[in-house]
Amino acid sequence: MKPLKPQQHSLVIHDAKIHWCQIAQSTRMPHQQGKVTLVGAGPGDPDLLTLKALKTLEKADVVVYDRLVSAAIMALLPARCQTLCVGKAKGQQSITQAGINQLLVRLAQQGKQVCRLKGGDAFVFGRGGEEIQYLRQHSIKVDVVPGITAASGCSTYAGIPLTHRGVSQGCTLVTVHAEKDLDIQWQALATLNHTLVFYMGLSKVDLICQQLARAGLGTETPAAIIEKGCTDEQRLIKATLATLTEQVKHHQIGSPALIIIGEVVSLSDSLAWYQPQIDAVMSMNQCQK
């Protein structure tokens, strides 16, 4: 074999570099796959976002968000960030959970840093576990950033402690949003003698009150509903188990709303600290009259 000339030798080296570069790129492809981070956005107030949540939002290529994520939080996203709303609302056509799962996989496979932004905490009635299971079935890397769940945030902003020495030693979180018939042990809830918090229960407030009363919970038990908690539009309506349904109708409470039932509700007058902007405006109008 004849020895290669200098020019030919450099061409061979150049071709070899290209060849190995292509192999390296094909080898790295799985590692260049994107990642999905489930982020709890909290109950509404952007100041309640964790530092880790904020850092994740700043680095995200695309944010897939739910209906309950507040506009104030969405305003924090960098302009370059793509946003996709997959929020599900009652009576409205929206993307299915299966569709959301597939979307997350597809975006990650495109190499994107995906932020799956959920109201409250992803692991409290947020289907975060279901989404992680699906992503892992498709070999997608997943991180999770906890958020403040509505029960904690909204009750605090309403001046209602979920537990209080001598009043309530425990708290039960219940969702009354079900695709099929509700399977709730009302008798057990009524005899727990501690705080009950109902998520997504606005349309079933009458059912909740009736079932608890039928199970033995006293009709004079303090009850409250918090509309748009942790925002400037927060409204707190207090009643009893017997009158909550009537008060909800009278005040035309809308979604999102959180229901709290238990003796701790009676502490709100002495523990109240947050004055929503809507209350401040109403107070100013009353002063001007």
Automatic annotation (TrEMBL):
The keyword Nuclease does not apply. CDD domains: SUMT (cd11642). Pathway: Cofactor biosynthesis; adenosylcobalamin biosynthesis; precorrin-2 from uroporphyrinogen III: step 1/1; Porphyrin-containing compound metabolism; siroheme biosynthesis; precorrin-2 from uroporphyrinogen III: step 1/1. Its EC number is 2.1.1.107. It holds the Pfam family TP_methylase. Keywords: Cobalamin biosynthesis, Lyase, Methyltransferase, Multifunctional enzyme, Oxidoreductase, Porphyrin biosynthesis, S-adenosyl-L-methionine, Transferase. InterPro entries: 4pyrrol_Mease, 4pyrrol_Methylase_sf, 4pyrrole_Mease_sub1, 4pyrrole_Mease_sub2, CobA/CysG_C, Siro_Cobalamin_biosynth, Uropor_MeTrfase_CS. Residues 35-244 form the Tetrapyrrole methylase domain. This is uroporphyrinogen-III C-methyltransferase. It comes from Photobacterium iliopiscarium.
